[in-house]
Amino acid sequence: MDMNKIFYLRKEDRAPQWLVVDAQGLVLGRLATKIADVLRGKHKACYAPHTDCGDYVIVINAEKVDLTGDKWTDKEYTRYTGWIGGFKVRTAQEVRAKQPEFLIEHAVQGMLPKNRLSRQLIKKLKVYAGNQHPHKAHAPKTLAL
Predict the structure, then answer these.
(1) What is the extent of the structural domain holding 53?
(2) Is position 93 within any domain?
(3) Which of 32, 35, 56, 71 could form a disulfide with 75 if both were Cys (CB 3.0 to 4.6 A apart)?
(4) CA dist., res. 115 & res. 103, Å (int)
């Protein structure tokens, strides 16, 4: 590779892989940073911040992810409907009971850059509460964290 030339990854040269991550017993924040790096492609030599050179990530056992300290009761997820009295607050424990996938999706999305590329990258994240996923045809490899 000539060091005086700029490297641009073309769409034809992209070869994304499918990777499976088992979230059982892993800490949410540390898991999310690793997943965000894989989605962006920072683990590859061809990484460029302005292109999508990352891989697809399948997360299984999302309901078995861990939070440290008292975050199950202290961490709050808020949203506002736009109506009077429409400010909703749920703890992490309540979110895990109803939609455990949201915990990982929300954490990973917060660790991606806030631009158009991140909206494209987050679509490559597939999160499932149990240990089964419908992506067997892609022959995903296991990602050790």
Answers:
(1) 17-72+100-142
(2) no
(3) 71
(4) 21
